[in-house]
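hey can u run this one w/ NAP bound, need the structure tokens asap thx
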Amino acid sequence: MSYFDGKHAVVTGGGSGIGAAIAASLVSAGAAVTIMGRNDDKLRKVADDIGAARELADVTDREQVATAFASAVKNNGCVDILVNNAGMAQAVPFAKMQDELWDQTIAVNLTGVYNCTRVVTESMLAAGAGSIVNIASTAARTGFAYVAAYCAAKHGVLGLTRSLALEFAKKGITVNAVCPGYTNTDMVESAVENVIAKTGRTREQALAEILKSNPQGRLVEPEEVADAVIWLCQQQSVTGQAIAVDGGEVQ
Ligand code: NAP
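ok here u go:
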């Protein structure tokens, strides 16, 4: 019997990229998995493919989050594992930052983590068990130019992770973060396109610029992030940690 048998895992942003890889790994490990996101077509494709349930929710909308989690719990039982993975990033010089972009970046990447964590807290406390894994970023551990809002949000995720780890330390709940470097998903593709549009570089040049940041000279694969999540879920004495999956980029 696997550690994950009989456990219900929710993965936000599970309809693509890192979230889809995490959801697939959790299903393979034996968990019942619900993926959440805003785009039902994306969710349905991944859910059908891997054998997961799906719920529509914008993580910034507390009513939608409450409804989606209530439905997920009705279908698959209380949430044992929460992976807060939904996120977005848009690069812009700080002097050109629009208030809307700042607000949206904090709402999705930081408040979204709060919203989803808040709705599972009571049942995890009542069960005296639970794993919460927040997909942060290298941008949670160091600053990067042109993504101030994203860095601020991801640093906030790490602060939340560390505080909750202490608060729940004697309650059977672990709270950790995984901090990927540039990972092979649509998010990096958008970053490449952004560099091409802003600098006129070729795709190869833009990608090479991004790869420079990784000492291994390659993108992280989504499955490598998923491996860290699977490992963290099974640890009882690892909590409050920021696990880097970044080829040695941030030390
Ligand atoms: P991605 O493919 O763009 O995935 C992001 C996911 O988040 C999408 O499935 C999207 O689904 C969902 N999402 C975005 N806004 C949402 C909202 N308001 N409510 C609910 N879901 C929302 O990018 P990814 O690379 O897999 O990113 C996953 C996580 O890894 C993010 O937290 C990101 O910050 C982090 N990360 C990525 C990298 C990288 O280089 N790729 C590096 C470090 C950290 P919908 O659009 O359907 O809602």
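The CA atoms of residues 3 and 231 lie 11 Å apart. anyway lmk if its weird
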